[in-house]
Design brief:
- With 123 residues, this protein is mostly helical.
- The protein has a domain at 39-122.
- Helices cover 76% and strands 0% of the residues.
- The chain contains six helices and no strands.
- 11% of the residues are buried.
- InterPro entries: DUF3899.
- The chain crosses the membrane at residues 12-32, 38-59, 101-121.
- Residues 35-117 form the DUF3899 domain.
Length: 123
């Protein structure tokens, strides 16, 4: 967990993962295939980060509240110990530190992809 707190060490770890995937999966060792591997890792981080951002923004709160209310009204087996109004909404369950973590790494790896694309097309 201490590794994940140091964002620069984790970024170095991500570049190491990209290099390892490149060495194992690339049919030809060239810049094009390295950019592809970096793209896969970068957009995984961006996808998760943007998804957490949308969840944290409260987009799914109304939908979740409506489903809980509907399930409570329609359910034939009422659970009186379960208070559906007191359950946390999805926006309350996403920690801001995870959101920053995924967006930071996604953006920096994307900048790396764009930089390598500029180098690739200028060669």
């Amino acid at each position: 967990m201490n590794l994940m707190r140091n964002k620069w060490m984790m970024l170095t770890f991500n570049v190491g993962i990209v290099t390892l995937l490149f060495a194992v999966l690339a049919p030809v060792y060239d810049l094009f295939h390295y950019i592809n591997q970096l793209f896969y890792i970068a957009y995984f981080y961006l996808f998760v980060g943007i998804l957490l951002w949308v969840i944290r923004g409260g987009f799914f709160d109304a939908i979740t509240y409506s489903f809980r209310r509907f399930t409570n009204r329609v359910s034939k087996q009422k659970d009186y110990m379960d208070d559906w109004k007191q359950k946390p909404m999805p926006s309350e369950t996403v920690e801001k530190s995870w959101l920053k973590f995924f967006l930071f790494h996604g953006v920096l790896l994307t900048i790396g992809v764009l930089t390598l694309l500029v180098v690739y097309y200028n060669l």
